Amino acid sequence: MNIFARVAGRFSYTRKGRKIVTNIITGLFISLALIIGSLISVLAASHEQRTGFFNEDMITNSGSLETSHYTSSEESPIVDSNDMKIAETYPLPLDGKLTSEYGWRTLDGKQDFHGGIDISTGDNDPIIAIADGLIECIRIDEKSYGLYIIIKHDDGFYTLSAHMAKIYVKEGDRVVQGQILGLVGGGQEDPYPGRSTGRHLHFEVRKAADNNSRIDPLQILNY
Question: Of 147, 144, 162, nearest to 205 (Cα)?
Fold first, then answer.
């Protein structure tokens, strides 16, 4: 008689009863042995294996976080393009007033070639990307452009946005049409206004990255 049968004999005096009790005790013992074996396997596993178990759980549980989104002052939000001036051409980079056009002009009593357009709202309003592209460079030109961005657009041209008070993107970033690049600057209170008499956006369109290939932005902007 095995040990389970002897233990069962203490709970029942009939053969059938002892058999039932023996089966119950045997099942409990097997279950307990399996649990102990599993615990030993986990404890005996390497550190990488144990962290792998937890990392898998974290990945599974984080699935719901991937759909959440918030916008902070340091992010570059997306402007709904349905609110912009889009027709068969590109939207304005800033929803403001055109204060200076492309071409020759008189500045400080001298003839000066203006290689872009100036748009102003008088405030630190958002500047958007007029088309999808890649941030080519972000620079500071204290004598002229101030803080500026050059974007290489997927459609085969470049744009420059100058006199910026703040920038929300960095070099190498991909941007989409309607994405906010930063805020208008050019005022004396801005850190790098460049050559500016007031807060405004200086905006250029180029066929290449250099300034010898500038064209009139109003040729492609829906103004």
Answer: 162
